[in-house]
Amino acid sequence: MHVAFLAFAFQLQVAVAARPAQQAQGASATHAADSTRDLKAARSAQSTFEFIRRSNLPEGFGGMGRCDVQLGRYCWWYDEYPIKLPPEPNSIVRRRINLIATLDSLGELHPGDDWIAAMRVHYRLDGKDAALTASADTVARACRATTWWCLALVGYADHLLGQAAAAESAFTGALEKMPDDERCKWQDISVLLPSNTRHYYEGLSCNARHAVEDRYWILGRPRFSSGGNEWRSEFYVRKLQARLANQSTTPQAGSWGRDAEELLLRYGWPTGWSKVERMSAVVPEQSVIGHDPSPSFNFAPNEALYDTSAALALFDPWLRAHLPKGTRILVSPATRAQQTASALTEEFKTVREIAPGASYASVLAAAGWPNAKGAVLVVGHQPTLGHVAALLLSGAPAEWAMKKGAIYWLTNRARGEQSEVVLKAALSPELA
Question: What is the pTM of this model?
Fold first, then answer.
């Protein structure tokens, strides 16, 4: 009896213990199914809203075939005088309010969902309703999704609300919390750079890019009196909008792609939309047109103000292929000259005699011209290098212009009892 009792008791314990596990598994599966269903409902509501908005866009505000910039499938043009679009139909205003209500209710059920959290902020900023727009910051700060994403949403809201310092602080916090690979993507400014600098920048590691990025944002800052760098915050807002557009239905027809992302990063998210029908060979085609803020401004610094290493690095393969073995490399102690040489090699000599403000005589003496054996590469500055080139090629120093990053290759050779200077190559960054 004793043994049987123990066995019976043991069996009861096993049966009792198994029930909560089965119940937990069932509850978990039900919760997962509910989450999937709710997310589908949220995406369906968002997609339906954009489809109906697209169907109700005002017509006849096209660009008459203009195309100032072609980016893949898209044409961008600049209108000197802004186009005044009609007010958004009340039916779309009401549908946006209903969409926000749907997103809010689903957001309460799934507070950790990044997409729902973002849509709740985005559609409050999307319309012209002042009360909804003002509430975007409150909703963003109550976000309980991924930490860095919530901070980015706060930056999004604060930037569009004109709170420059708060937006910059939020984006700084978001970048600090991001995984390294995500941070690298957000800080990538390649689409904003002119061609020569972009080519150089894209060849750098994430850490090595920081010098170019820091210089770009300092030189491109619109207002130093503002509490934050509004252009940099605007760029991060565009990064966030590109991420949302890639995961959602947009007012534009068609799929999201790299061309759409570059268009957004370069010119910003439209403040209004219209549509126009164009006749094709078969049936009329409908195009959706995004209208950017007007007037718009270009805050990008001139390429000449970028680090000179960007220009010289374009000739890196050429220099490696043509410089004779054993070439001595003499470099000015100036920071940018040091960075320029480092882009080519670590084996160079810093020479104070060719620092900014040096005379052409000092440069020639440092190089050992014309009696030194072998080749010498001098990484120096204007106007001194222009003086050197003018003296050697014309016989007298003169104010010869040299582009930043340009290369002059001069050599001397004896003809009988006389020595002559030969220009072997002249390379400009524009030709790279």
Answer: 0.68
